[in-house]
Amino acid sequence: MPRLEGGEESLRSLAAAGPVFFAFFKISCPVCHLTLPFLERANGTARIFGISQNGIEDTREFNRRFELTFPMLLDREEDGFPAGNSFGITHVPTIFASGMDDRIERVIEGWNKQEMERLGVVRESDHVPAWKAG
């Protein structure tokens, strides 16, 4: 897959290097606006890769707007959404968590406060819904 800042990356090689979260999103998705900034809180303690289903400039602007610093990969419509189709994405955000053995251990669809608490990114002072569909 293309990296936002140039070059390419293989999801398989990223997962083979140890536990990782792949967060599929679209910039027009309000639930993605809620979810991705919380994932940013885990950046540095967990390996997170955003997978944007938008173009380069739109994704850069989204990152600036929400102050996202984790690496971004592009799964663009013009390329036929190869990763999204491979993973069977039906809506966004969808987060896949792989474990030590390169297998998907968990899938988080939409916003799920309980799952975000498991990641340690929701604080007591955060007033967020328990669940929102993507």
Summarize the biggest pleated sheet. Answer: 5 strands, mixed
User: Unreliable runs, pLDDT <50, ≥5 residues?
Assistant: none
Percent in strands: 15-25%
Number of helices: 5
Count of the separate structural domains: 1
The CATH homologous superfamily name equals Glutaredoxin
Percentage of residues in helical conformation: 25-40%
Helices and strands, in order, run as HEHEHEHEEEHE
Approximate shape: globular
Ends: how far apart?
23 Å
Strand order of the largest sheet: 3-2-1-4-5
Return Rg in Å.
14 Å
Summing up helix and strand content along with how strands pair, one would put the structural category as alpha/beta
In total, the number of strands is 7
CATH class: Alpha Beta
The CATH topology annotation reads as: Glutaredoxin
Report the mean per-residue pLDDT as an integer.
95
Please identify, by name, the CATH architecture. Answer: 3-Layer(aba) Sandwich
Write up what this structure looks like.
This protein has 134 residues and is of the alpha/beta class. It has a single domain, classed as Glutaredoxin. Helix content is 31%, strand content 22%. The chain has 5 helices and 7 strands. It has helices spanning 11-16, 30-42, 56-66, 82-87, 113-118, and strands at residues 20-25, 48-52, 72-74, 94-98, 104-109, 111-112, 131-132. A 5-stranded mixed sheet has the order 3-2-1-4-5, with helices on one face. Strands 6-7 form a two-stranded antiparallel sheet. Strand 1, helix 2 and strand 2 form a beta-alpha-beta unit. It is globular. The two termini are 23 Å apart. 27% of the residues are buried. The mean pLDDT is 95.
